[in-house]
Amino acid sequence: MPSRKKVTDMLLPRQAPREKIAAALRCFVLLTVFLMARLQSAPRTADFDLVLSLGAAYTLVTTFVPWARYDARRATLAVLAVDVILVTALIYSDVGIASQYYLLYYLPILHAAVRLNFRDAIGTCLLSAVGYLLVGVLSGTEGTVTQPVILRVLAFSFSAGLLAVLFVVAARQSRSYQQLIIHYEEAMQSKSDFLSRVSHEFRTPLTAIVGFAQLLHEQKENADKDSQHQYLTIVREQAHHLANMIEDMLDLSRIADNKLVLKPEPTSLSDVLDSVFVLLDHISDRERVVVTTEPRTPTVWIDRNKVEQALSRVLEVAVEAAGSSQNVSVKIGPGVEANSAQIAIVAAGLDPDDEGLIPLVRTDGAAVLAYESTGRSLGIAVARALIEQHGGQMWLADDYADGAAICLTLPAYRKQESGPQVILGVERGSEVSGAEAHAEDNDRGRRPAGAEANAG
Amino acid sequence: MPKIMIVDDDPLARRLMRDSLRRADADYDIVEVDKGVLALELIGHERPDLVLLDITMPQVGGIPVCNEMKRNPATRNVKIIIVSAHSDSDFIGAALDAGASAYITKPFRPEELRHNVRRVLGARQEPALA
User: Fold this and answer.
1) Which CATH number does the domain A265-443 belong to among 3.40.50.300, 3.40.50.10490, 3.90.550.10, 3.30.565.10?
2) Highest mean pLDDT among A149-153, B87-91, B110-114
3) Testing the interface with A: which of B15, B57, B103 to mutate, by most A Cβ within 10 A?
4) Burial status of residue A452 (CB atoms within 10 A of its CB: 0-12, 13-18, 19 or more)
5) Which chain B residue's Cα is nearest to A201?
6) If DSSP codes are grouped into helix, strand and coil, which group holds residue A403?
7) Is residue B67 part of a domain?
8) In B, what residues contact A, Cβ < 8 A?
9) Distance separating alpha carbons of residues A392 and A141, to the nearest angstrom
10) C-alpha angle B109-B114-B119 in degrees, rounded to nearest 5
11) Domain assignment of residue B128, yes or no
């Protein structure tokens, strides 16, 4: 059974200490004004003026000085300054001070209204009206409520209520405006961070392009054929890398804006892989990639260019992770879910803790990562986003015998007419594949239906 | 022969700096390191005259390496040139505050690197390249 304190906490949301102090002071000001109004026939003293002016100064400052709500030190100084002015005015002025106390009824109302608490504003307004009524009753002849008193109470209630509503509306508009400003500033900061990150990432390949091109230029009189060839290769590869980064950035931007248009067509995954190999920089990298295709692998319904782009990014990461001595295994087969195909790209060096693979671990959507991606993770981020645009999934599986794997699914091509959906295309098993031999491996890393652990 | 330690996790950037310095008129003994942690371990043993230091590296970045080198009496006098793709004034200010003698922004021209190395090492001016 929850303790009484816990129950109280649940029923009564905790207020910040400043809010409690503010509420207490509002009541204090109301009470003081009420008492002073009641005792206005009694001789006025400096003590009363001091107490009243302090409450009034607090209310004035916290109502009309925006930074008083979060800068307690400056607010205290401001309250004291206003207090000194009010005390001086009250002590050295003899012009109808007692009757002016009624005006201070408005201050707690303003205070509650501007602090964006509609309930407090209305409550304070009603409390003020009741207080004013009591003052009128107690000040009336023999305790009777006269018509002028009722009219004054009604006029006061109406004006106080109107004032409270106006201030609540103004304050809410002000709050909306403040929130807009905050969102705008956050967006500008995100944009600035993004541009800074993009600039940094683009400078990496640019450094190699500019630097080695300059070295080539310097070498023109002492041409060293070997280094010339190496420099040219570096410049070509880095230019290609830079072009890929730009393409990835643009695609992520299009996906985030829902402007990416896919042109799906029935496609063989083996054909896609053949095209992807051409995109790999080194022939030696291509030779280290071993593809096995299971029989009954369905033809997929994809935008071929975009899937090639996604697979090339994944293969580049896998080849890099595998190092120069290990093979990368690409296993193509039917997906666990009906009408889908699955690709598992297995490499020994794939590390789930690698920051380049963060887009496969994060759950908040690959497109969001456009703003967080580093150069290494950008390719994976765009690959995941492109696969998910096709209705597929992409995730990291670490339960393969020969290393971790980047797995992805793609939708199978289905006949569009009504009636039973039929998988039209079935690929033949390739000569290097061994469906039976790899059956156990192929079952590993498959995402269970409905498991969204890594999905965006 | 002045010894220069190149600390950068990007092998292409290390090679570019190495090849740029090899084309200078002065001879340098060059050591390459790909991690900030490793640089801190090796610097006492290698005792370079100058460290060319990248900022963004895994685990330990260039600024902490710079701070640690200036804190350690044994490495306090080793000159440091930051070579980074960060062009923000915040990074430049942080690097210079940490004790770096110069800041080169990537991409850089090889002669820009050589000029700064020469200046920081106190060597005489090399004739301008064509």
Assistant:
1) 3.30.565.10
2) B110-114
3) B15
4) exposed
5) B85
6) strand
7) yes
8) 10, 12-13, 16, 19-20, 23, 56, 58, 85-88, 105-111, 129
9) 85
10) 130
11) no
Q: Is residue B68 part of a domain?
A: yes
B10·A199 Cβ contact <8 A:
no
In the chain, the amino acid numbered A102 is Y
Q: Structure pTM?
A: 0.59
Can you give the pLDDT at residue A328? Answer: 86
Residue B80 structural domain: 3-121
Q: What is the pLDDT of residue A326?
A: 80
The CATH number that applies at residue B91 is: 3.40.50.2300
Please name the residue of chain B whose CA is at the shortest distance from the CA of residue A211.
Answer: B109
pLDDT of the residue at B115: 93
The pLDDT, as a whole number, for residue B66 is 94
Task: Look up residue A375 and give its two tokens.
Answer: 């150069």
Name the residue facing A218 among B23, B58, B88 (closest C-beta).
Answer: B23
d(CA A387, CA A68): 52
Q: Which residues in chain A have their CB less than 8 angstroms from residue B108's CB?
A: 207, 210-211
How far apart CA A252 and CA A257 sit, in angstroms, is 9
Q: Does A365 touch chain B (CB under 8 A)?
A: no
- Residue B82 in contact with residue B70, Cβ under 8 Å? no
**So what's the pLDDT on residue A37?**
59
Burial A204-225 (b: 16+ CB within 10 A, else e): bbbbbbbbbbbbbebeeeeeee
% of chain B surpassing 70 pLDDT: 94
Domain boundaries, chain A: 4-185, 265-443
Mean pLDDT by groups of 10 residues along chain A of 456 residues: 47 51 65 61 55 67 67 70 67 48 57 60 65 60 59 64 66 76 89 80 91 88 80 90 87 85 90 82 72 88 91 86 81 86 87 72 51 63 90 85 86 65 40 38 46 37
Q: Domain total for chain B?
A: 1
Q: What is the DSSP letter of A373?
A: -
Token pair 């150069």 is at which residue?
A375
Nearest to A111 by CA among A64, A145, A170: A64
Do A306 and A262 form a contact (C-beta atoms < 8 A)?
yes
CA–CA min distance B74, chain A (Å):
33
**What Cα–Cα distance (Å) separates residue A73 from each residue in A25, A70, A390?**
18, 9, 57
Gap between the Cα atoms of B39 and B105, Å rounded: 21
Q: Are A319 and A289 in contact (CB under 8 A)?
A: yes
* Alpha-carbon span A215 to B106, nearest angstrom: 15
Domain-located, residue B129: no
Amino acid symbol at A454: N
